[in-house]
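Appendix B, Record 12. Input sequence as logged:
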Amino acid sequence: MWTTLWKEYHNLTIALIIVGLLTIILIFIAWFTPWSERQVETRSTEPLTLGTPAFLTAVESITGSPMLPLPPEGITILNNGDEFIPDLLKEIRSAQHSITITNYIFKDGELINSMLDAVIERAESGVEVRILMDGKGSLARPRKKLDELEKAGGKVETFRPVWSWRTILRGNKRTHVRATVIDGRIGYTGGAALEDGWLGDGLTKGKWRDIMFKVDGLAARSLQNLFNNLWRETSGEILSGADFYPEDITEIHASLPCKDNCYTSLLHAPTPDLEKSLSQLLWLSAEGATDHIYLETPYLLPDKNMLKALMTKAKSGVDVEIIVPGPYIDSKIVQAASRSYYNEALSAGIRIYEYEPAHIHSKIFTADGQWSLVGSANLDNRSSTLNIENVLAVESATFADDLEEQFLIDKTHTTEIKPGSFQTNFLTL
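Logged structural output:
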């Protein structure tokens, strides 16, 4: 009898362990991945073409923001650390009222320490300073410098600390946002992280090729609003007043849709119920193209809707060209996954180029020499369904021309991919 009871008890224990493990796996899938979400086909009620009122209205519906006029200075393109860092330090050292900085990566080294030295000096002079770091991306943060900043009056917060049980169920959902604002007037966004790999000219092994964008006026205010959203979620403090929001920057609410030299912004913060804004904005931008699409991304992992849109456009005669990493990439597994799309994309007429001299981290999308998307988002599942991201959508031929010029320069440092000329197994990369 005891033997029978022991066997039944033993079998029940094994069954409970199995059920428990399956439950943990299901909870992990439900909370940390988008697998449980319904995958729907993106489409529009009518054909949409870039620049038309219907297209811009669709963009506004996705972003939840109106198209607003760009400032007269437009958007300044800053290539790599050689251009971005000196410009940023100059503006920080000139700050009179406030400095707000958020980035995914804060890593101890020359770049972050030089920036924090300038920020600390401004904080000691009475400038309001707020720094928000992602809990995962800031594990190697410069703790001594940040302590100095807090002693000088600055405030530092961490978004969803990795080791906090309070955020464990959202631990895979990070803020990937890049938004720095000086005095509420000058703003920076793009792909660069605050880490020494971003120093240099983007043509050196071990460094990153990247682009940052400098804006002012209302566009800078949109970045300040974005920072404020994340800051108050993390710290509870709502930023307000003239130090952060200068009163002479007048809000513009156009009665008619803006047609030329305009922008709108997207704060993409996916939830279990609403996660499609970024992927739909990308799809819409590809769908509206009639002549060409230039795409530069460190991770080519499009969802099925975006891949279908790009392939359909290429088959219809639209020139679709994509620059991705070559020999230098931070994840061989991701590169193998990216290359798994190559054959299908190439067969549709898409042209793919791998960047040779350094890592590439630029995140740009341009179409037809008039429409551009820039910001923090990658073309992958993390950006579209997990990460908080920021994107500027810009209707401007001048800006698109400048971006496309950079794309063509980058293309001179690439090797075009031909069928059968690449490996897809990460063990052989």
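The mean pLDDT is 89.
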